[in-house]
Write a structure and sequence with these properties.
The protein is α/β, with parallel strands linked by helices. The protein has a single domain, classed as Transcription Regulator spoIIAA, CATH 3.30.750.24. The protein has four helices and five strands, in the order ββαβαβαβα.
């Protein structure tokens, strides 16, 4: 049995929120992720998603990530992915998503990248 999907708030720093995801990102959980990210977006914050404990990403999960990235960037915010596990990174590489999704090794690397664009 797979671990249930969860979203945990990380620390907020300098106009940026961190969300730590756990479990499967699929058609069942993508709407939950989109809704939570919309709340952060409405606050005018940049966003880092930590994917370290994501066990699976479906095409719907990938679509959600692309939607979040586009929505935040259209409003001038920063959006980065941190600690992407190898099995998820392999999917990103196969689909050439690293050209439109910025991926960093750590949360601190993502925060630094967002801070450097200000």
């Amino acid at each position: 049995m797979s671990e249930p999907f969860s979203i945990a708030d990380g620390p907020r720093a300098d106009g940026c929120a961190i969300l730590r995801l756990r479990g499967r990102m699929d058609a069942t959980t993508a709407q939950q992720l989109l809704a939570r990210c919309a709340e952060i977006h409405a606050e005018g914050l940049s966003l880092v998603l930590n994917l370290a404990y994501v066990t699976f990403v479906s095409s719907t999960g990938i679509g959600a990530l692309l939607t979040i990235a586009e929505d935040i960037r259209e409003q001038g915010g920063g959006f980065r992915l941190a600690a992407v596990p190898e099995h998820v990174r392999a999917v990103f590489d196969m689909l050439d998503l690293t050209t439109c999704l910025n991926v960093d090794e750590t949360e601190s690397g993502s925060l630094a990248a967002i801070a450097s664009r200000k």
